[in-house]
Design brief:
heterodimer; A: about 325 residues; alpha+beta; BirA Bifunctional Protein, domain 2; 12 helices; globular; B: about 210 residues; alpha/beta; D-Maltodextrin-Binding Protein, domain 2; seven-stranded mixed β-sheet; five-stranded mixed β-sheet; 12 strands; about 30% strand
């Protein structure tokens, strides 16, 4: 955030710290412990796990011995490397962080984004999924304005792609069109690949209230991976309906994960006065294999800069906080 | 509560065609003739229409100042922003092309190919993996002049009929992406205003 006066900076920083304490208190109450993520990580390792990432946005640093390092663009991968060098995986590990990530911003400057988030490792999949969704709903709820938690399940569409075996370029192109909700170009591409009368004809419509969408998606299952996805979503649906969170939840099975390492539940939180997602997360069991141990793993992060702005806007009677981050 | 929605429309020919699509619909725009105002609404004030420079439409939508935008695919490709591209409006059809002199070669070994264009980001991406050294020369209009005056070897531009090219002794050397007018949406708006956005999709035609 940028400020015009020192008074404003002090007031906003104090206000933000108050929100941080509130969220930290909530994370701790739920059994999560604070850790501080390392600042650098190896460039090669980072890019290998993130093929959809725009490499030009990443801040590269030349370290000792001319190693190329990246200045923490994402906390999850960064934290895992550290944890798996010490943790034996013998009990569920629940941690949270309150840190910044860095990227090449406009005007050739390195920009920072303040994030708080949780990672839950080694916990039963259903328990982990439902706890993450519940905590995400509570955090969005503290903003005291309408919010929507958009959830998807990457294994559903990935299960489909695993079955039809396209070239990696075609698969990525289809996923890109799906992620842009680009119905017309998707239709053309599906036609060219002779994939009409498959899930791809309908994928952009498989979204809406969770109560309906799970049933809408079920008939398209063509293998075990897709069926398991639906079974898991049925259990998640039951939880969300029982707990009364379903009103603010939209299920969208055309959601494509921002990070390649997500495999299973993915979600994004939107709040009405913010133009961008303010919360995002998902399950990343597959990623833990890179650290030579496969454990169930899920996490999410909230964008503290946006959260602060929304809360200040609320206090000012909805006038919003006029600043650029 | 009635959902309200703001649509950013590219000023100029493409935008005017976009406005026409709302004619005789319940969201028809109310405009005084010859007015130079930039903000209008429909009669029920459900939709606010704002008229901005084509290149800014995508920015307005990404930043959430507008929920939806009507803009050419050329601008979307050039700006490359994080928005949904929900509908092909099926007008303003043309193609991105590489154009130059007849029989001109645009694959030069060990030489830099000079390309004049308005679309620098797009051109950069097109040539990214082509093993061809390039120099991009940014122009703001009349791009066809560049090869004639030896400012560039080729141009990258959008072409509808190819008449301007032909009149200037140039021809299409390679066809690139297909371009037409599109309806784009802010990602948060898409969720919060889903119902009215679907209604607008139906009015604009191509919803399946």
């Amino acid at each position: 955030m940028r400020f015009t006066t020192i008074e404003e900076e002090i007031a906003v920083t104090k206000f933000k710290k108050g929100i941080e304490r509130e969220i930290e208190g909530y994370f701790e109450e739920k059994g999560f412990n604070l850790i501080e993520p390392p600042i650098f990580q190896k460039y090669d390792k980072y890019m290998a796990s993130n093929y959809r990432q725009d490499s030009s946005a990443i801040v590269k640093v030349l370290g000792g011995g001319s190693n190329i390092l990246v200045l923490r663009p994402d906390i999850t991968i960064n934290v895992l490397g550290d944890i798996f060098s010490k943790w034996e995986g013998d009990y569920p590990l629940k941690i949270y962080y309150n840190s910044k990530v860095y990227y090449n911003g406009p005007e050739s400057w390195v920009a920072a984004n303040h994030q708080m988030g949780i990672e839950s490792l080694g916990e039963d999949v259903l328990v982990g999924d439902t706890q993450a969704l519940e905590m995400a709903s509570i955090i969005l709820g503290i903003l005291k304005e309408p919010y929507i938690l958009e959830i998807g399940y990457s294994k559903y569409l990935d299960g489909f792609f695993n079955e039809i075996q396209l070239s990696i370029d075609d698969e990525n192109e289809l996923k890109e069109l799906i992620s842009k909700k680009n119905r017309c170009e998707l239709k053309d591409k599906v036609g060219k690949l002779a994939l009409n009368n498959t899930l791809l004809d309908r994928i952009l419509d498989i979204q809406g209230d969770i109560e309906d969408v799970v049933d809408m998606a079920a008939p398209f299952c063509i293998n075990g991976e897709m069926k398991e996805s639906i079974e898991q979503l049925e259990k998640i649906r039951e939880f969300l309906v029982d707990k009364g969170y379903k009103e603010n939840i939209k299920l969208d099975l055309s959601m494509i994960a921002d990070y390649h390492y997500y495999d299973g539940l993915i979600f994004k939180g939107y709040s009405i006065s913010s133009p961008k997602k303010i919360l995002s997360g998902g399950r990343y069991d597959r990623l833990t294999e890179e650290f030579e141990m496969r454990v169930p793993a899920i996490g999410f992060m909230v964008d503290m800069d946006y959260i602060t702005r929304i809360r200040i806007g609320g206090e000012n009677g909805g006038k919003g906080y006029n600043s650029n981050s | 509560m009635v959902e309200k929605v703001t649509i950013a429309i590219a000023k100029g020919r493409l935008g005017e065609k976009g406005v026409e699509l709302f004619t005789n619909s319940e969201l028809e725009i109310v405009r005084e003739k010859k007015s130079r105002k930039l903000i209008f609404t429909d009669k029920n004030k459900e939709v606010k229409y704002i008229f901005v420079k084509p290149a800014d439409v995508v920015t307005y939508v990404e930043k959430g100042v507008a929920d939806l935008g009507i803009v050419g695919k050329d601008i979307i490709l050039e700006e490359n922003k994080d928005v949904y591209e929900i509908l092909d409006l099926d007008f303003g059809k043309c193609n991105f092309v590489i154009a130059g002199f007849k029989n001109g070669s645009y694959k030069k070994k060990n030489q830099t190919l000079r390309i004049a264009t308005k679309y620098t980001n797009y051109t950069q991406r097109v040539f990214e993996n082509r093993n061809q050294k390039i120099e991009i020369i940014k122009l703001n209009g009349s791009v066809e002049l560049a090869p004639l005056l030896d400012l560039s070897d080729v141009i990258v531009d959008i072409v509808e009929t190819g008449k301007t090219l032909k009149d200037n002794g140039l021809e299409v050397l390679e066809k690139l992406d297909y371009v037409s007018a599109r309806l784009i949406a802010n990602k948060a708006s898409y969720r919060f205003k889903y119902n009215i956005i679907k209604k607008i999709e139906r009015i604009l035609g191509v919803s399946e």
